[in-house]
Design goal:
Elements: E1 2-3, E2 6-7, E3 12-14, E4 19-21, H1 24-27, H2 31-40, H3 48-53, H4 56-64, H5 87-93, H6 97-104, H7 107-121, H8 124-183, E5 205-206, E6 215-218, E7 224-227, E8 238-242, E9 251-260, E10 268-274, E11 282-285, E12 291-293, E13 313-319, E14 327-334, E15 340-347, E16 354-360, E17 366-370
Antiparallel strand pairs: 1-2, 3-4, 5-8, 6-7, 7-17, 8-16, 9-13, 9-17, 10-11, 10-16, 11-12, 13-14, 14-15
Length: 373
């Protein structure tokens, strides 16, 4: 039976004597007990006298009691000193392992174990474990980020390949179209020509009835005018007007190219007239850039004489807005030069409009009205 942490012998009652039955160990003496009896009897092995002195109960106790000092205590040489063993030690050695553990367990041992556990919790080992775990987490995050970047790069590479294939396909189609166009005969159009915006001149030349036979108007838009023969009066020029109507409140610009001058009578006059070539007149000559208004004498150019040669472009600007004064202005520029103002007294209160004019007297003199861009 198990009692108090140790294995106890099972005791059964003896019905013959009225006493409890002994266990096998109590009924049979142990070898150590036999040795003890021999020592008591003098080592002869005869225990008749002793057995009469000891009762059966004493023999049973001697047989069941552990030997203090172990089995080897009686086997030592006679000359060897014997070491006494405390009784508690002998008792503990005879106890089971569970009883020994309970015997040495004490509050001091529990406190020492708790202290060692607290030291382990606060030691550098826990710090090392925490650092390793943090490093592992950082590496895991970095690996995830790297995988995400790699995935994005793969997607970009796939899209780039698709776009490259599309470009190669388009290039192949264009090359085939170019080759097929080169195989066509010259002058054959692939399709209807797209309409293009063709700049046109702002007006056309319209000679008066009086001088209709003196001029020839040509060009798709009537932009070219040519003097036919010399005018009968030497030193005189006759005007040809344009279809534009210069009204108050507007600003008008046009460009004339002097394509040809007569060698004998090279003088031309550029400017504006009233309706039906009535006054006011504002004119500038091509020989010296002198100017005149109405029937007044010719005035020299403020900056000196300047010849307008054959092939030159003359830009004219007439401002009829009256923004700064009650009169209009007339300015002119040659080729890419700056504008020069020649008149600032163009009347704006006239009931009739003004027209652009060019006057010529020599044969085959020709001017062209350029389109506005």
């Amino acid at each position: 039976a198990f009692s108090g942490g140790r294995l106890a012998p099972v005791v059964s009652p003896d019905p013959a004597h009225g006493m409890p039955l002994r266990s096998a160990r109590e009924r049979m003496p142990s070898p150590e007990a036999s040795v003890s009896l021999r020592l008591i009897t003098g080592g002869t092995g005869q225990s008749n006298g002793v057995q009469h002195l000891l009762s059966p109960a004493a023999m049973a106790i001697a047989a069941s009691a552990p030997i203090l000092g172990g089995r080897g205590s009686f086997g030592k040489p006679s000359g060897a000193p014997s070491t006494p063993v405390p009784l508690s030690t002998g008792i503990v050695q005879g106890m089971p392992l569970s009883a020994r553990a309970s015997t040495f367990s004490s509050p001091n041992a529990d406190a020492a174990a708790a202290h060692r556990s607290s030291l382990l919790n606060g030691s550098s080992l826990n710090q090392l474990i925490a650092r390793v775990q943090g490093t592992a987490q950082e590496r895991e995050q970095e690996l995830r980020r790297h995988l995400a970047e790699q995935k994005e790069m793969d997607e970009l590479l796939v899209r780039s390949r698709e776009e490259l294939q599309q470009l190669v396909h388009v290039f192949s189609e264009l090359r085939e179209l170019h080759q097929s166009a080169s195989d066509l005969p010259m002058g054959q159009n692939l399709g209807p020509e797209r309409p293009r915006i063709q700049p046109k001149p702002p007006f056309s030349w319209q000679p008066s009835q009086e001088y209709d036979k003196e001029f020839e108007v040509s060009g798709e838009c009537g932009e070219v005018v040519t003097k036919l023969g010399d005018f009968e009066d030497q030193g005189w020029v006759i005007p040809v007007g344009g279809s534009w109507r210069l009204m108050r409140g507007g600003i008008y610009r046009w460009t004339i190219r002097i394509e040809r001058k007569c060698q004998n009578r090279p003088q031309l006059q550029l400017g504006i007239h009233g309706a039906n070539h009535s006054q006011p007149w504002r004119l500038v000559t091509t020989s010296r850039c002198s100017w005149s208004r109405d029937d007044e004498a010719w005035q020299d150019r403020p900056g000196g004489d300047r010849l307008i040669e054959e092939g030159s472009y003359v830009h004219v600007e007439v401002d009829m807005r009256g923004a700064n004064s009650k009169c209009g202005t007339f300015a002119m520029a040659i080729n890419d030069g700056p504008f020069e103002q020649f008149f600032d007294d163009i009347p704006l209160g006239q009931p009739y409009h003004l027209i652009p004019v060019v006057s010529m007297g020599g044969s085959q003199s020709r001017v062209r009205l350029c389109p506005n861009y």
